[in-house]
Write a structure and sequence with these properties.
It comes from Williamsia limnetica. With about 325 residues, this protein is an alpha/beta fold. The chain contains 13 helices and 8 strands. The longest helix is centred in the N-terminal third of the chain and has 19 residues, at about 75-90. The structure holds flavin-adenine dinucleotide.
Length: about 325
């Protein structure tokens, strides 16, 4: 049923771009069961509760304040303020003995990159302010990857930020043809790279279209990162990628503290716990906030079975 899955995925990704559907959906309380599975809440209290529970179970966390594609400067500023508050609260948490249990993840489009005037400069300055506060609080920062039209701008901003914050992380997506080269360029000393498959609908001239090709690319990229001198972050729920990370890290002579697994909140919780229990570092990406629509739609598109649960929850209200 690959063609049906592909069509369903395209329909969901089209709905993800519709402002009208977005406005209607975001009015629904986040407590609705299916959204809640992927987004623990809208408030700081709710995300800190979820984060504290994950830390207590031996996992690490990366918190994302939901929002993307900001088109006005005041919204970008509100995002900066939300991150500064979040980092302040994270800095007060009692944390485990793990070396870097706390991280925040940022989308540059939420920090103003798409603003018509000086967007890139504004996003850089905003991300810099967040990185300063995070460094003071002992919190890592990683910059998320958005659609392929933004990759060059994201990597330009990341390179500038890394001059001041060498441990700033960035995300690369194995579905893009360019990513093997980006991995080779960015796998140097101290470099933190989160490798994921990629969650946006991308055209064939820039991205692999089949699962087999995306997976093969992931494995080639992962080998480059494991053999490099940076810090690989293996962001996948796929059992084949998880097993390959184990083999490739061992072949490269890496100790468990020299790389980590990452998974999304609400996905394969049992596997997250199993990996933590066998001594692997596991970080869970935990999104929160009222603008959950785009994030949630990407989770539906990844696994159309989720759509059935979602529709069932809507009709059983
Ligand atoms: P898949 O082959 O898609 O899935 C493997 C298995 O995982 C599935 O069989 C299923 O059991 C489970 N699974 C996967 N997705 C779901 C789901 N939605 N619901 C239920 N089960 C599921 N993408 C970006 O484009 N930019 C980013 O910045 C980004 N950051 C990420 C950060 C983290 C920590 C993670 C884990 C992912 C991130 N992603 C990002 C998403 C990523 O690109 C993939 O879309 C997503 O992780 C699914 O790919 P997969 O490797 O898990 O493999």
């Amino acid at each position: 049923n690959a063609p049906i899955v592909a069509v369903t995925r395209n329909v969901i990704m089209a709905a993800a771009r519709s402002d009208r559907i977005k406005r209607t959906a975001e009015k629904m309380p986040v407590t609705r069961n299916v959204v809640h599975r992927f987004v623990p809440g809208e408030s700081f209290d709710e995300v800190l509760d979820a984060g504290t529970g994950l830390l207590a179970s031996g996992r690490m966390i990366s918190i994302d304040h939901l929002g993307e594609d900001t088109t006005d400067e005041s919204a970008a500023e509100a995002t900066v303020q939300a991150y500064l508050r979040l980092i302040g609260l994270l800095g007060e948490l009692e944390v485990s003995s793990l070396e870097h249990p706390l991280e925040v993840s940022l989308k540059l489009s939420a920090l103003g990159r798409a603003l018509p005037r000086h967007g890139e400069k504004i996003a850089l300055e905003n991300a810099h302010r967040i990185a300063v506060a995070a460094a003071q609080a002992g919190v890592w920062v990683t910059v998320d990857a958005e659609d392929h039209t933004t990759t060059d701008a994201t990597l330009r901003i990341v390179r500038e930020l890394r001059a001041d914050f060498p441990d700033l992380g960035t995300v690369l997506q194995s579905y893009l043809h360019r990513t093997e080269d980006d991995c080779a360029e960015l796998s140097g000393p101290g470099s933190r790279i989160r490798l994921c498959k990629g969650a946006y609908a991308e055209p064939a001239d820039v991205a692999f279209q089949t699962k087999a090709d995306v997976d093969d690319s992931y494995l080639r990229c992962l080998r480059i990162l494991m053999e490099g001198s940076g810090y690989p972050m293996v962001a996948s729920h796929d059992p084949a990628m998880i097993a390959a990370a184990e083999t490739l890290s061992a072949a490269a002579g890496r100790r468990p503290e020299e790389w980590e697994h990452q998974m999304l909140y609400g996905i394969r919780n049992g596997e997250q716990l199993r990996l933590a229990q066998v001594g692997r570092q596991v970080r869970v990406y935990v999104p929160f906030g009222s603008q959950w629509y785009g994030y949630f739609m990407r989770r539906l598109a990844e696994r159309p079975a989720n759509l059935t649960f979602f529709l069932r929850a809507l009709v059983s209200r």
